[in-house]
Amino acid sequence: MHTPLPAATAPVVAGAGTSRVLWIDVAKGLSILLVVLHHAVVKNLGIDAPESLAGVVAGWGAVTSALKPIRMPLFFVLSGFVASRAVHRPWAQVRRRALSPYYLYVVWLLLLGAVFSVERLLPMNRTQDLGELAQDLVWASTGVWFLYALAVYFVLAKLLAGLPAGWVLAGAAVLSASSSAFGIEQWNRFSVLFHFTYFALGALAPRLVRRLAERPAGPWGGAPALTTAYVALTLLLWRLDLPTSAHLLVASVVGVPLGLRVAVLLARSGPPARLLGWVGRRTLPIYVLHTVVLASLLHLPPLLDLEQGSVVRGVLHPLVLSAVAVLVSLGAHWVLLRLGATWLFALPGRPERPRRQAPRRSTEVRASSSEGPYQVSSRPSTSSQGERSASGPSASVNS
């Protein structure tokens, strides 16, 4: 039987009539910030930086490439984790959970497709014509693939929920490890195929996820040892030159627990934890809007002038752009909600009421969104785009 951890280990904060487990929101906040930072590096820095800062560009590229087995895998583990009870409920009670992310995917596929049909400077996976649009409705290739994947993964997890979780996870891991063998040119389509393992882990083995995150392991939760192991494993895998899918899967075996432990540690940090948790409850507007902000910045006077070849400015450049992209995205979201554009961030219609159930122990955390870790309220008071190649872990400009 799972024994709840003390509050110091699993901090909670009040929220909307229930309690929230803070480390989940913190982990969501970390994940979306890493996504924005990645895009600031691979999309903007390479364009803004002069040749004299090639070393800085390469250094940032190595850092964000090394974080790839943590960024989206962690996001999908959290998505599955908060859906762990829903995958066992009748379809009539959970249809919005499948429909909502696909609805949002279609909305933002069309809107961002229109924006980036005009804005051509930022490196993007662009939907070029109606034929590609039809294909993207069936299998996402653009930067909003995460929303498409959430819908598909939930349906798959629900269909497979009656089978032994170990067999499902083993089969999903084989699919992930062999994804490179399918010769998929579009990186985002490769990502849709590759990441189901992580959603299935959260949805079908939530107790394991919670143990990985919350089990005490000394004052630092085992994070230093995991960090050392992750760095060593990353260096080893780069030397082995494995296929992309095998490289990412093996690295994530350490990377995902590391991300979970870091989130739990940060959840004890007071104001930083509250800030990260606040961001983690508003990931959807950041996710769908930040590339528009990054693209706009390419047409404005530079926030940091890199033409003088300043290494310090080169190092700070992606961090500053990421902060601006997050703040502007959240500001735009605030304005859009006050203009009544709630349909941009939530499936219209009255949400289904969950059935009243007798209290019971559960590994599902009520704190997280009914729609996964990109949760955002439609009320004003609350609240990855890339290249076509999947040839290697350092080649992608996507999340």
How would you describe this structure to a colleague?
The structure is a single chain. With 399 residues, the chain is mainly α. The chain has one domain (12-344). 60% of the residues lie in helices and 2% in strands. It contains 15 helices and 2 strands. It has helices at residues 22-48, 54-66, 68-82, 91-118, 130-138, 145-160, 165-177, 187-194, 196-204, 206-214, 223-240, 244-266, 271-280, 283-297, 311-338, and strands at 12-15, 18-21. The chain has a two-stranded antiparallel ribbon with strand order 1-2. The relative contact order is 0.21. Residues 1-19, 358-373 and 376-399 have low confidence and may be disordered.
SSE blueprint:
Blueprint: E1 12-15, E2 18-21, H1 22-48, H2 54-66, H3 68-82, H4 91-118, H5 130-138, H6 145-160, H7 165-177, H8 187-194, H9 196-204, H10 206-214, H11 223-240, H12 244-266, H13 271-280, H14 283-297, H15 311-338
Helix pairs in contact: 1-2, 1-3, 1-12, 1-13, 1-14, 1-15, 3-9, 3-12, 4-6, 6-8, 6-9, 7-9, 10-12, 11-12, 14-15
Biased composition (Polar residues): 365-399
Membrane topology: Multi-pass membrane protein
GO cellular component, one term: plasma membrane
